[in-house]
Design a protein that fits this description.
- By secondary structure, this protein is an alpha+beta fold.
- It has four domains: about 90 residues, Arc Repressor Mutant, subunit A; about 110 residues, TATA-Binding Protein; about 45 residues; about 180 residues, no CATH class.
- Helix content is about 40%, strand content about 20%.
- It contains 17 helices and 24 strands.
- The strands form eight sheets. It has a seven-stranded antiparallel sheet with strand order 9-10-11-12-6-13-16. Strands 19, 20, 21 and 22 form a four-stranded antiparallel sheet that branches.
- A hairpin with a 5-residue loop joins strand 4 and strand 5.
- Helix 12 packs antiparallel against helix 14 and helix 12 packs across helix 16.
- The longest helix is centred in the last third of the chain and has 33 residues.
Length: about 500
Amino acid sequence: MHDLGYIVYYGDDERLKDDVVLQPEWLTKAIGFVLEDRTTQEMDGILPDNRLQEVWWEYPADGKTRYPSALYPFFLQLMEKYDVSYRLEDGTASLVAQHVPQVRPNLPWLPEEEPANNHRRLATVCVMEESPPGLIPWMIVRTHDYIYQQHQTDGKTHRLHWQKGMFLRNRRHGEAMLELRDRELHLYTEAVWPVYFTNLLKQTLQKLIAETWPGLKGRYQFTVPCPTKQQGKACMGRFEIEALRQFLEEGDDTIRCQKCRTRQNIIELLYGFEEEDTREQLSRIETKVERVEIKVEQGAAKIQQNLQELESRIANYVMVIMQAVASESKNGPRLFTIEPMSGNWRRFMSKTYRLHLWCEAPNCQHPIHEAGKGVYEFEAPREWVEQIAPYANLIARVLKTLAPIAAPAANAFFGEEFIKESNIKYQLETMKELTNTLLSNDKLLIDEPARLGDSLLSQGERSGILALHSFLREEDPHHEILGLKRHPTYTGDYLWLCETHYQQAQSKIPQF
């Protein structure tokens, strides 16, 4: 607040932190003009930049309040922040999600159809006690990176979203259809391994509900639809996922649907929704990496299918790990490598180390490449290195696992020799030596059961990332060397991105 009442200020937003709004009603009215604009409705939500003068100056909805063009970039950014609209890829217009078409367009596939060869389809239904107003428009904006576009012969581009749903495509991880039917939000994903895209969209939905409709907490649940079809129609039965997990743990193998009375196998119903320890996930992924490398002779098609599944599994695992330290992500980065300046962990007479931070761009994680950024050379006692060792051990395994997937993308951004010149293999081998030298097997075994409440990280691993952030605050309080900028995500945490990826993540806002 200030002396005159409430103010609007976004100190945590890099783009908006220099602006303060003293009269929120003035701001609300400006956005209201867009929502009331008849032409935008007729254009299925498309608001070209060349019409902003018309909406906010020439023909304002109330006939009197006018906004100068110098404010338009600020308004467009706020409309994105409040999930009113998203910017189109070419940077010439915004799409106002409230005004997308009423009728569902023709889609590449429907839930009742068979999935493509070598693909699986995963279905889940979010059952809510009440349907929150504006759910679909909000989800359209928050998933716009995956909006499926169809280019027609008439030269027009049709985006596959409508008032009750959307069709999405993740270039690496499959396709999805979301549709609101009364108080149920149906989510269908299709891919070689659709679990990752499902989890990504579920987390996006959960964060949206928590932020926008906190009163729904405890009043919605994710379920699996009964797979039985009666006379060509899907059964309306639903199985609560948490209940299925409990029944399976208690020894039940099957469950009877209360709608169609058909008995279903619980393990089959839980495909894609199993609870799995993060260590088990990582071990399974490491095994799959080895198998893909060994079975090259099986042929290109088989290799490609294995790689697609592996890439999705790696992305899912990395997301789980990053979510495990989501609360810490607000305070600092999570990915790094560390090595002794002497080149040998066993020479503890030398206490000088080099810490190299990594950009957290999904599918393109890489060491900071900007000269003079992201690298710290410092002295530290052995006790400090031992404190970060458990977390460093975990991150070393994660980075080693995702490197084959992220490396080609990083080379595409920064040059074909970037990964080779970064000497990532040496950095990761050095991190492994840190683990072997400082952490005995006995200590690892003792620390393993000491899981925190979320059962994802051990106490030692949590202490490790806290020690890392404490070091960065003391060594670089104003982020002069950090080389990373914090970027909020729709899944509830923050990514720390290098300048290149940070700028790529920003929408194209025109200047007037």
